[in-house]
Design goal:
Elements (H helix, E strand, L loop, with lengths): L1 H10 L3 E2 L4 H9 L1 H10 L5 E3 L3 E4 L18 H15 L6 E3 H11 L11 H17 L2 E5 L14 E4 L20 H9 L7 H14 L3 E2 L6 H8 L1 H12 L2 E4 L3 E7 L13 H18 L23 E4 H14 L6 H5 L2 H14 L3 E4 L2 E4 L25 H4 L8 E3 L7 E4 L2 E4 L26
Antiparallel strand pairs: 1-3, 2-3, 4-6, 5-6, 7-9, 8-9, 9-13, 10-12, 11-12, 14-15
């Protein structure tokens, strides 16, 4: 029961009793062990009261994939913070009109930014914030439709404050009023005495493993990697006892891996066609990495073959990577969905790269693409008897998935599962992201590098 409780708390932002009463009480049954694990290892605070259960999953380092996925602009975050301030002064169950909120926002945010409600993008930002707050349970919608604000800011909508906003934001033990960016929060932790030792280092290691798809280090003298390697037996034991996963450690990377039949959260590869394409890209990158030198690569050294595989990150010129994606699109044109086939080449490339960057498989740099070791843990191909002459929608699902084998392990991030094809055949490989990676059997070439996710 404690494993299930820990997994549920990791997977969900929070559990609201009024919304998920059965899950709330079921999770509470294993709460003592889950609280002990969260407090002693990642150092996360657990909120437990009669209204909500919430594990405050603060990461070791901020990553690009982190944040509120419903938000698309910085303005969304500014308006959301203003909403939280507005709700602080409201009683639980107190109703309010949208116009009251917008008036307060104009006054509250005047020193920070000028709100122009005649701007369509500003109104859409407000709509996203209100829809997110309602979806999270911070507000109850009583009357009206916030979508009407898209045309006219003077449209009224009646809401009720649930009182849960006081548990949404993290309460820090230090003053954050003078902070201007995420770097300030990391700097606060670094200001503590000897952060490479003691509980701070333990917290960092567990947070990287649990909140990211992988943990990476560049130097053999990296303090966190030394702790992980020296304490691998105990770290593995605690992870297995509390989450039923396995710790895989490579020379420059570590992964918390789950069995394919026992995953939770979002996983890679997922159900969309884009996931299959990324597997094909990873396979092509592995082929490039085997060659010496790699075309368009400015940093490369001969890989040493070992049980785990090792190497460096690979830096590929933008034009070379774009060519790889375009060649793949031409070669496998019919195997892809109609949407991807008809998508403009630049948009398709951006979509694939955004996804891979979100999963920490690569990072775009000035004129180059840096490939991280996570990308070399995957390799996709179509079965030899897969008919590429017909468009994907004309083939039966049964024919496409006929030779699926389920023999691999997975890494988790937070939600989903997908049949994927690796260089050893077709396998079912859910992964850990935000997010999570798959363990390959046998000997494989793998690049060293850095990566992260949850």
């Amino acid at each position: 029961m404690s494993v299930e409780a820990s997994r549920t708390l990791l997977e969900k932002f929070w559990i609201i009793k009024d919304r998920e009463k059965d899950l709330y009480y079921k999770t509470k049954e294993g709460l003592d062990a889950a609280r002990k694990f969260a407090r002693e290892y990642p150092g996360w605070r657990l909120i437990n009261n009669e209204r909500v259960l919430k594990l405050e999953k603060i990461p070791a380092h901020a990553q690009p994939f982190m944040g509120i996925t419903d938000f698309t602009d910085k303005t969304d975050y500014v308006l959301f913070c203003a909403l939280l301030i507005f709700l602080e002064d409201r009683e639980d169950g107190e109703p309010f009109l949208l116009s009251e909120l917008t008036d307060m926002m104009e006054a509250q945010l005047k020193p920070v930014m000028e709100l122009d409600w005649t701007s369509f993008s500003m109104r859409r930002s407000l709509i996203r914030v209100m829809q997110f707050a309602t979806g999270q349970g911070l507000l109850l919608l009583h009357e009206g439709n916030v979508e009407t604000v898209s045309a006219d800011i003077h449209q009224e909508v009646l809401y009720e404050n649930t009182g849960l906003s006081r548990f949404f934001a993290v309460n820090f033990s230090f003053d954050t009023s003078g902070y201007s960016g995420w770097q300030d929060f990391e700097r606060e932790n670094l200001s503590e005495a000897d952060t490479d030792r003691g509980r701070f280092r333990i917290n960092r290691v567990y947070r990287e493993l649990l909140a990211c798809p992988a943990m990476y280090w560049e130097s053999a003298e990296d303090a966190d990697s030394l702790y992980l390697k020296n304490q691998r037996q105990w770290v593995s034991k605690y992870l297995e006892e509390n989450l039923e996963g396995r710790l895989d450690i490579h020379r420059n990377a570590a992964f918390f891996v789950l069995d394919e039949e026992d995953t939770f959260g979002e996983v890679f590869p997922g159900p969309a066609a884009l996931y299959d394409i990324v597997l094909l890209v990873c396979g092509s990158l592995r082929e490039l990495a085997v060659r010496s030198p790699v075309p368009g690569e400015s940093e490369h050294e001969e890989r040493s073959e070992s049980e785990t595989g090792s190497g460096e990150t690979v830096l590929i010129a933008d034009s070379v990577f774009a060519g790889l994606l375009d060649n793949m699109a031409e070669k496998f044109h019919n195997a892809w969905s109609k949407e991807l086939r008809e998508m403009a080449a630049d948009k398709r490339r951006a979509l694939i790269m955004d996804y891979m960057e979100d999963w920490m498989l690569l990072r775009r740099e000035d004129g180059y693409v840096r490939i991280f070791p996570g990308a070399f843990k995957f390799s996709g191909h179509y079965p030899k008897d897969y008919d590429l002459s017909k468009p994907a929608e004309s083939r039966s699902k049964a024919g496409a998935d006929a030779d699926t084998d389920t023999d691999e392990k997975t890494v988790r991030r937070q939600k989903r599962k997908r049949t994927a094809k690796t260089d050893q055949g077709t396998v079912d490989e859910p992964v850990k992201k935000k997010r999570k990676q798959v363990e390959e059997k046998g000997r494989q070439e793998q690049m060293d590098g850095q990566l992260s996710l949850f």
